[in-house]
Amino acid sequence: MENVIILGTGCAGLTAAIYTARANLNPLLIEGSQPGGQLTTTSEVENFPGFPEGIDGFMLMDNLRKQATRFGARFASDLIVSSDLTGDVKILKSASAQYETKGLIIATGAAPRLLNIPGEKEMYGGKGVATCATCDGAFYRNMEVVVVGGGDSACEEAMFLTRFCSKVYLVHRRGELRASKIMAERTVQHAKIQMVWNSAPEAVLADAQGNCRGIRLKNLQSGQVSELNCKGVFIAIGHVPNSAAFKGALPLDENGYFIPKQGSQVRTEIAGVYVAGDCADHIYRQAITAAGMGCQAAIELERWLSEH
Ligand code: NAP
Q1: Measured distance CA(226)–CA(215) in Å, rounded
Q2: How many CB atoms lie within 10 A of CB 1?
Q3: Is there a contact between 114 and 120 (Cβ–Cβ < 8 Å)?
Q4: For residue 209, what are the contacts with CB-CB under 8 A and spacing of at least 6?
């Protein structure tokens, strides 16, 4: 049986690993489908304290991993699909293995939400549908693209894409942006960005080679359906926390985010089980706040283990 299992190897999981490893708890990290978490798909991280010139996202995660390994953290590649947290021994199951642990830190992160419209999945990842402008924007140099969404992420994606693209359409289902005032103003006023208000995407359209040629939109006020030509569609409509394996085992809010125990950011209703990072935080969603939660969870767990 393990002392500590940490699920996830993003900023939260790796920080928890550094702290629990340095406390001689010999943590086992289980990394799922995206080792290193969301930052591995970010180019430059400019706001992580301690790097005045910024740092490449992949490098930051690689450094955190090396730091955790240096103190004895171990890594396994597996996807946990169900759990039984009712006993003193917490049980985690993947398709092919079962893990048992005294303490658990869930730092499973969040994944970009998709529209679930025809064409989206078929063209996702290389054929014109994307969820990360920083990763894929440069492929659309001098082309017209569409960003879908109305929050800070959509504005940020649209602004970033103006560096490469000849024109960026920002398609939003309402008549005003949800984004912060300063981001919204900057976006709406940008010469390369054209707002498409009150419109919902109905399908991503493919050319003969199966690459994106445009998007079909429905105006939600008039009901009119139209097509917008573009080579890329960037979807920025929020994130879905990776919490499905714990449905029924721990309290989740209506969007699937873990709800920590009242009075704490990282404790849960079950003693010895902690949450950290984007799977439990829909407000800040920053690398540094995820790392902070990972640290808190590790310290809480270390204390709980020594008391029990
Ligand atoms: P968000 O604020 O939840 O916005 C999601 C947007 O997508 C909303 O405008 C929503 O429309 C739209 N949307 C959701 N589902 C949709 C669907 N099925 N079809 C069409 N549109 C859909 O998400 P976010 O922009 O990712 O931001 C999340 C949090 O991170 C926020 O607190 C944000 O402030 C923060 N953040 C901050 C920064 C920054 O400060 N630099 C950058 C990025 C994110 P409605 O408006 O109609 O609901």
Answers
A1: 8
A2: 9
A3: yes
A4: none
- Would you call 152 a catalytic residue per the annotation? no
Domain 2-111+239-307 sits in which CATH superfamily? FAD/NAD(P)-binding domain (3.50.50.60)
pLDDT digit string, tens, across residues 171-192: 999 999 999 999 999 999 999 9
Query: Do 2-111+239-307 and 129-235 agree at the fold level?
Result: yes
Whole-number Å distance, alpha carbon 130 to ligand 1 midpoint, is 16
* CA 152 – ligand 1 centroid, Å: 6
Q: Is 155 a catalytic residue?
A: no
* Ligand 1 midpoint to CA 111 (Å): 13
**205-263 residue pLDDT tens:** 999 999 999 999 999 999 999 999 999 999 999 899 999 999 999 999 999 999 999 99
132 noted as active-site residue: yes
Residue ranges per structural domain of the chain? 2-111+239-307, 129-235
Does the model's pTM come out above 0.85? no
Q: What is the CATH number of domain 129-235?
A: 3.50.50.60
Q: Whose CA is nearest to atom 19 of ligand 1?
A: 115
Beta carbons within 10 angstroms of residue 55's beta carbon? 17
